[in-house]
Design goal:
By secondary structure, the protein is mainly α. It has helices spanning about 20-35, 60-80, 85-95, 135-140, 145-160, and strands spanning about 40, 45-50, 115-120, 125-130. The strands form two sheets. A two-stranded antiparallel ribbon has the order 1-2. A two-stranded antiparallel sheet has the order 3-4. The longest helix has 21 residues, at about 60-80. It is elongated. The relative contact order is 0.07.
Length: about 160
């Protein structure tokens, strides 16, 4: 006998009660107790259970998924970095499918992200390369300071056990 899945869109967890998995059932009951169990999507204008929205997002999961699928990434790359997805693919090819700093081929970051971060100079806006989540965060924490990065490298060299 096939197991029933949660009735919330894009959730494949096993059905627990009233058509919901354990997580969504709890959220559903909490919202029902406060009388705020539905929201209206700003894209499709359907009234849907609050559990079909993520956090404070104004679109239901279905609309958010199709919005992303139908070119949101392309628009984001063009708007924020001035590159197309084919430019991104070309950069990744030139980097042999790896992070521009470390040898990883795994982008890291969000569970759903299969893309490397587009690293750019925050002063000029010039794109420098594609980085994994760890290297992107490291540059951010160093505040893009070359002097701090050199000092960090010197510190690690001085205290290296190898």
């Amino acid at each position: 006998m096939a197991k029933k899945e949660c009735s919330v869109e894009f959730c494949s967890n096993e059905h627990e009660a009233k058509g919901f998995c354990k997580t969504h059932y709890h959220a559903h009951m909490m919202k029902n107790a406060t009388g705020q169990d539905t929201r209206t999507c700003v894209e499709c204008y359907r009234s849907a259970p609050e559990v079909t929205f993520q956090g404070y997002r104004k679109q239901c999961n279905s609309c958010a998924y199709y919005r992303y699928k139908d070119g949101h990434r392309e628009r984001n790359l063009q708007k924020n970095y001035g590159i197309s997805s084919s430019d991104y693919d070309q950069m990744l090819l030139l980097q042999n499918g790896m992070c521009a700093i470390c040898p990883t081929t795994f982008p890291g970051g969000r569970k759903t992200s299969n893309y490397f971060h587009v690293d750019h100079d925050h002063t000029t806006g010039k794109v420098r390369g594609l980085l994994c989540a760890g290297c992107n965060l490291a540059i951010g924490h160093l505040k893009e300071s070359v002097a701090t990065a050199r000092a960090l490298a010197d510190y690690l060299d001085a205290h290296s056990s190898v």
